[in-house]
Amino acid sequence: MYTTSSSNLAHLAIAALLLFMLASCGVAKRNYREMIYFQNAKQVNVPVRLQLKPTVIQKFDQLMIQVYAQSINQEQAALFNMTSGMGQNGVVNVQQGNTLAGYIVDYEGNIDFPIIGKVKAMGYTKSEFIDTLKNHLKAYIKDPIVVVRYLNYNITVLGEVNSPGLKSFPNEKATVLDAISASGDIKDAGLRKSILLIRTMPDGTIQQHEIDLTNIECYNSPYFQLQPNDVLYVPSNKIRLRNANQDPTIYRDVPLALSFLSYLLLLNNVFRFIN
Questions:
Q1: Are 171 and 192 part of one and the same domain?
Q2: Across 105-183, where does the E strand assignment appear?
Q3: Residues 41 and 164 both lie in one domain
Q4: To pair with 61 at 20 to 30 A between CA atoms, which of 34, 88, 143, 203?
Q5: How sure is the predictor about 98, in pLDDT bands with cuts at 50, 70 and 90?
Q6: Mean pLDDT, to the nearest integer, of 60-80?
């Protein structure tokens, strides 16, 4: 005979199965939403403008400096141009097969420039530093032309990205999206809502800022544009953390247990009809 307890057990099994299916759908939906960039892009119709600011030279930056004269004769200007093996605080940087000689900004924020000696670099933008060098060079070269480039415009990307590590930007311009793209995009397990930016300031202090890539207004953030030697960290999302802290077999064993329970109920019904 089909008893009340059997009926209750059947209802309980069906309810448990439905709850498990609903929970699985909810987890999948939340996981999907966490993977979407700029979720409010359609609601925000106001044009965004990047808050671009010139990069400020910091201690330990590596700079390539080239000096030219307006005249055909470049002999005087050549005295100020470093080649491989020259300079007291020079550095040789190899990029794409080319050997480039540069200057390291020392702990006090200076470079040791040929003939001129110590020249302050830290705290200046590139254009300001070029003007400073020109003023020093005017005593030796008429209307000097000075070119300054970074040899270490690098961003470190860590965490839940497909290709973490040090990323170089020879064009001396990088945004958060540029760095993420250079790292092969964020993994499904990455938390796009809370990207951590770690920045070392010229005075040596460390600043931390969060950037939300699920919000289109992240473009308006003053930290969307990156500076040399910035560090980006992409943390794990809640689903990844929850999966890491629980038994990995739970999603396999629960459906098996429910299937086995359903099988027992089916057998019970078969025997009930036979009897």
A1: yes
A2: 110-113, 117-120, 145-150, 154-159, 165-168
A3: yes
A4: 143
A5: very low
A6: 84
If DSSP codes are grouped into helix, strand and coil, which group holds residue 22? Answer: helix
Residue 12 sits in which domain range? 4-32+246-274
101 within a domain of the structure (yes/no): yes
Does residue 147 contact residue 137 with C-beta atoms inside 8 Å? no
pLDDT at 261 over 70: no
| Tokens representing residue 199 in the block | 């920045």
Q: Rounded CA gap, 183 and 162, in Å?
A: 6
Q: Tell me the per-residue pLDDT of 151-172, one tens digit each, with 9 for 90 and over.
A: 999 999 999 999 999 999 999 9
CB of 113 within 8 A of CB of 103? Answer: yes
Q: Could you tell me which of 228, 225, 81 has the C-alpha nearest to residue 148?
A: 81
Query: pLDDT tens digit string along 198-247?
Result: 998 878 889 999 999 999 888 889 899 999 999 999 999 876 555 555 55
Which strand ranges, in their side-by-side order, compose the sheet holding 98-104?
Answer: 90-95, 98-104, 62-68, 145-150
